[in-house]
Amino acid sequence: MKRFKTLPYITSLALLFLFSCSSDDGGSGSNNSGLELVGNWVLSAVNVSSAIDANNDGESSFNLLDETTCLRESITLKQDFTWSSSAVNADLISAITGDLYNVSCSSNLNTIGTWGFTGSNLVMAGAGTRTLFYDGTKLIETLGNDLPGIQSLVFERQ
């Protein structure tokens, strides 16, 4: 008879334990679907591996946005997990001499696709796949190219 009286307590304790446990994502309890990323993101840095002077003003910078006015990109992430982007990218970065470089820009490129969020990574699929790290305030796409390439792109919420 004692066994049947303790059974409800053990069952309740087991259910409490089962429903109170969840996977630990290491986060602060925020929604892990990525919906906090919905909105407009604007390119704030185009980082290169060595400081260059592309505008020939005598000042070198690791950020190409300081050196040319033609580069830009905006990304819109929508709640239905679709995205769109409008960009003018660096088509060619060519060395002239020393830390002087010439940057040629593309025409305006418009792209669309779908997106998802896993851990701290935003994955955007469309004509290709892009993975951007979300640090809590910025989206960072690491390309890792040495000059004449681009190391990373940084986007901030508009």
Describe the structure.
The protein is mainly beta and 158 residues long. The chain has one domain: Lipocalin. It has one helix at residues 2-20; strands at residues 39-52, 61-63, 72-77, 82-88, 90-97, 100-105, 109-118, 121-125, 129-134, 138-142, 152-157. 12% of the residues lie in helices and 48% in strands. The termini are far apart.
Task: Give the topology.
Blueprint lengths: L1 H19 L18 E14 L8 E3 L8 E6 L4 E7 L1 E8 L2 E6 L3 E10 L2 E5 L3 E6 L3 E5 L9 E6 L1
Antiparallel strand pairs: 1-2, 1-3, 1-11, 3-4, 4-7, 5-6, 7-8, 8-9, 9-10, 10-11
Assign an overall shape: elongated
Strand order of the largest sheet: 1-3-4-7-8-9-10-11
Number of continuous helical runs = 1
The value of Rg in angstroms is 24 Å
What's the structural domain tally? 1
Global mean pLDDT: 82
CATH class: Mainly Beta
Low-confidence stretches: 1-30
Can you tell me the CATH architecture? Beta Barrel
Helix content: 10-25%
Major sheet characteristics: 8 strands, antiparallel, barrel
Structural class: mainly beta
The CATH superfamily label reads: NlpE, N-terminal domain
**Ends: how far apart?**
67 Å
What letter string, H or E per element, gives the SSE order? HEEEEEEEEEEE
- Share of β-strand residues: over 45%
- Predict the CATH topology: Lipocalin
Q: Tally of extended strands?
A: 11
